[in-house]
Task: structure prediction
Amino acid sequence: MFRRALFACLAACACSHPAWAQTHTYVSGDLFADVRRISRVVSPLDSGTIDTSPPDSVTGGGGARIGAFFSPEWSLELGVDAGRETSETRTASIPLPAGLPLSLPTPRFDSRTSGRFVATSVLIGYHPGAPGRARAGFRGGLSIMRTDATFTSFSSSIITPVISIGSPLAPPVILPPTVTVTTSEIARVAYGMFATLAGEVAIDVSSHFAVVPEVRAHVNTSTLLVRPGVAARWRW
Result:
């Protein structure tokens, strides 16, 4: 599916202007802020439910891109943009089963979630003509998003110690129960298709170099990433 979309993008750009001699290629590097909002079910810390989604956060990232202008108005770009990993640690409690003594302390553990998003995007760009050195542009297309996430898993057990006192006629001593908690960290890698929209303003510093402030948004049914940033573009 992704390969077919790439071929369709190439065909659309090739047909938009017959003069291949005017094609200009470019490479760029970018830095951006990574604003993440993820759908989740919010539960109390003492519910015993683990939130395995990466945390909402604002962090940074960077990327690299290669593209071509097939006409003054139309371009095609392939890029990889990677955000930094963010993590969140919360102290959660585990509800005790019914029937245990009320004086038994509630077991607690540190629940940690982390996440990182890497987007590989193919975008078609439209750049309407404008006088001067600054030129607006708009891009749209598809991204394959790799999500690296970790979360804390736990298991609990109730131990009721029984001590026998020497004489076989003496009843055993039953000590108060104790609860033990075992935690482990689980890593998860997932891939998903995201729709991507972008807006930019290319400011020409010279005939071959431009500074490009931009905003990109990646979205699917459960995750929204907004990445405002700036790119340095070399064109030849």
Q: What stands out?
A: The chain has one domain: 2-91+116-145+189-235. Residues 2-91+116-145+189-235 form a domain with the Porin fold (CATH 2.40.160.20).
